[in-house]
Amino acid sequence: MSRLQFLSTPEESQLAKHVNELRKELRGADSAALASLTGSRYEDIDPESGDFYLSVWGEDVKLSFPEFVAVDRESGAQLPTVTQALLAYYFHTADGASPAGRWISFSELPDGRFYSQAYQGYSGQVIARTFKDDVDELAQVAETLPRAELPFTEPQLKTNIGDRSFSFQALPRIPLLLVYWQGDEDFASTYQVLFEASVIHYLPTDVCAILGSTLTRKLVAGKGA
After folding, report:
1. pLDDT by residue (tens digit) across 104-116?
2. Among 69, 93, 117, where does a domain finish?
3. Domain that holds residue 12
4. Residue 7 and residue 179: Cα distance in Å, rounded?
């Protein structure tokens, strides 16, 4: 199984191993610099430790330093392994790049072309099977998730792509766009999850696959809720 396929459908024990490796590499990082690069807020506990505060899919999260263990800020409960991995990769990769001002498909990510069909299979195609052409219901579900925030929305970045589109904020510097193209008698309607082109400065391609599948699960779970 490729690393991309592994991370999009992760085995928890192996994923936890990857997370621990990243945490070790992050221990010597400058906390203030990391906060700036990731768009998070850092508060000192003492000269050698503290906490990062940021939003993940609209939920308030606290990430300890130098351990890099994420908990729900309200309950204090440790977050699932997939979320721990997402944050570890985000903090490990982020270089503070500005938004590129354009959306790209998964196939345009580094090495994404080789896995784009699989990615579309567990993202856009799943959304299409779930909602079909009921875009109004999809819009209602989308409203329960965090919309992309400035500086990622217009005028810096167009979101009126396709016949309908919905923007989402996964992490402080990572927006996504779900685009719907209405079909006709010859072609079925399609959905596609796009990324702001600067995402390559914040996550590796395989973890972008996790974002797309996570958004898909959230939308599917919201149908009829």
Report:
1. 999 999 999 999 9
2. 93
3. 3-93
4. 24
